[in-house]
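In response to the reviewer comment on reproducibility (Comment 2.3), we provide here a single inverse folding case reported in full, input and output, so that an independent group could reproduce the run without further information from us. The C-alpha coordinates appear first.
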Protein backbone atom coordinates (compact mmCIF):
# COMPACT_ATOMS: atom_id res chain seq x y z
CA UNK A 1 0.00 0.00 0.00
CA UNK A 2 1.28 3.47 -0.86
CA UNK A 3 2.37 5.85 1.89
CA UNK A 4 0.74 9.24 1.27
CA UNK A 5 1.82 11.06 4.43
CA UNK A 6 2.95 14.67 4.07
CA UNK A 7 6.72 14.93 4.42
CA UNK A 8 7.47 18.58 3.62
CA UNK A 9 5.25 21.65 3.68
CA UNK A 10 5.98 25.14 2.43
CA UNK A 11 4.05 27.56 4.61
CA UNK A 12 3.79 31.08 3.14
CA UNK A 13 5.25 33.79 5.35
CA UNK A 14 3.40 37.02 6.06
CA UNK A 15 4.71 40.50 5.39
CA UNK A 16 5.12 41.18 1.68
CA UNK A 17 5.16 44.90 0.92
CA UNK A 18 4.04 44.48 -2.69
CA UNK A 19 2.16 41.87 -4.69
CA UNK A 20 5.19 41.60 -6.99
CA UNK A 21 7.58 40.78 -4.11
CA UNK A 22 8.80 37.20 -3.82
CA UNK A 23 6.75 35.02 -1.50
CA UNK A 24 8.81 33.98 1.48
CA UNK A 25 7.98 30.69 3.12
CA UNK A 26 8.77 28.55 6.10
CA UNK A 27 9.77 24.99 5.28
CA UNK A 28 8.35 22.41 7.67
CA UNK A 29 9.93 18.96 7.74
CA UNK A 30 7.72 16.20 9.17
CA UNK A 31 10.46 13.55 9.02
CA UNK A 32 14.23 13.64 9.55
CA UNK A 33 16.79 14.04 6.76
CA UNK A 34 14.55 15.63 4.12
CA UNK A 35 16.80 18.51 3.06
CA UNK A 36 18.05 16.55 0.05
CA UNK A 37 14.46 15.73 -0.93
CA UNK A 38 13.52 19.41 -0.69
CA UNK A 39 16.48 20.38 -2.89
CA UNK A 40 15.36 17.83 -5.49
CA UNK A 41 11.78 19.13 -5.34
CA UNK A 42 12.87 22.71 -5.92
CA UNK A 43 15.06 21.62 -8.83
CA UNK A 44 12.24 19.62 -10.41
CA UNK A 45 9.42 22.12 -9.94
CA UNK A 46 10.97 25.07 -11.79
CA UNK A 47 11.00 23.45 -15.27
CA UNK A 48 7.45 22.16 -14.73
CA UNK A 49 6.18 25.64 -13.83
CA UNK A 50 7.94 27.12 -16.89
CA UNK A 51 6.36 24.45 -19.10
CA UNK A 52 2.89 25.14 -17.66
CA UNK A 53 3.27 28.89 -18.19
CA UNK A 54 4.46 28.38 -21.77
CA UNK A 55 1.54 26.08 -22.52
CA UNK A 56 -0.84 28.64 -21.04
CA UNK A 57 0.68 31.41 -23.19
CA UNK A 58 0.35 29.31 -26.34
CA UNK A 59 -3.28 28.38 -25.78
CA UNK A 60 -4.60 31.56 -24.17
CA UNK A 61 -4.40 33.80 -27.23
CA UNK A 62 -3.71 37.49 -26.86
CA UNK A 63 -3.26 38.81 -23.36
CA UNK A 64 -6.30 40.84 -22.35
CA UNK A 65 -5.79 44.39 -21.14
CA UNK A 66 -5.58 44.51 -17.34
CA UNK A 67 -8.56 45.91 -15.47
CA UNK A 68 -8.35 47.93 -12.29
CA UNK A 69 -11.33 47.62 -9.99
CA UNK A 70 -12.04 50.64 -7.81
CA UNK A 71 -12.15 50.01 -4.08
CA UNK A 72 -15.08 51.73 -2.48
CA UNK A 73 -15.64 52.21 1.22
CA UNK A 74 -18.79 50.62 2.56
CA UNK A 75 -21.55 53.14 3.25
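Designed residues, in position order:
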Amino acid sequence: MADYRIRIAWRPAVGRQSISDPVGCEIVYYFKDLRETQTRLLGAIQPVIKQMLERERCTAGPTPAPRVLPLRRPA
